[in-house]
Description:
Elements: H1 2-9, H2 24-43, H3 45-51, H4 54-76, H5 82-101
Helix pairs in contact: 1-5, 2-3, 2-4, 4-5
Amino acid sequence: xxxxxxxxxxxxxxxxxxxxxxxxxxxxxxxxxxxxxxxxxxxxxxxxxxxxxxxxxxxxxxxxxxxxxxxxxxxxxxxxxxxxxxxxxxxxxxxxxxxxxxxx
Length: 104
């Protein structure tokens, strides 16, 4: 699916295997989101296991991180359509994550 989206929108692939931030602001936003996630996981860990499923907390973090990455790519990336690829891959991963944990 990712290849189809890249081919359809003429998106060049990244040269790196890992995802690197676009600029300093993007790196700070990613670091802030990771610290909030880790703080929430540590402080709410026992409470989340008792009341709601921890997968929803993980899914919420994943969605916020993907949306922030797509926004930064839309705003600052050299390739104009890279954010479409980011959102498509995030949506596919979200569907797989939810279907794996939510559906019996």
